[in-house]
Specification:
Length: about 210
Amino acid sequence: MKNFHLFRSSLTFSVFFVLICFFAEAKTWVVSVKNYSFTPFNLTHVQGGDTIKWLWVSGMHSTTSTSVPDGAMPWDHPINQDSTAFIYIPKMNGTFFYKSTPDTANSMTGTFVVSGVNGIANDNGKREVILYPNPFQDQVAIVTPYGQTALQTLEIYDASGKLMLVKNFGPSLSLPCNLELKNLPQGVFMFKFTDISKRTILRRAIHY
């Protein structure tokens, strides 16, 4: 039991040094996936912190990185009727190349060019939305020092970018609010909030 508490304390200590919670004015770029193309297949004005979102239309495909800038995370995810969406949030400048692996002719390819990573905005201490506790076990509270924030939707993604949960809050969400998330597996998750002005607020939290 003592070792467990030491481990838990050590995990919490490490998380608060490693975990980065940031706010960004981010854009979502939607790429349609169908026989036999990514549309659009070439994105040239992606900013660091933007979201690339692949959406299934038809066929059996994947989005699989073939070349990424040094330090960037590669990805490989099916896009089909059973797995209809995948997101990727680039954190490095450069050109990202990808393809659909089930399309053996390698004719189904795409690219996106990312810049401005050093210009990703953060909270500057304001912390408009806070997840507490973090790490959390089965329940997490959404709180804000300003009483209310007009949040409309929440999307939760795992570390690979797989969409795990979508919540619609209606016209707006009054804070604080408690969310039951005991069905999530253990791991690191991205919480993507959208408010009534279509602004995106990104938070990361660990479920243990």
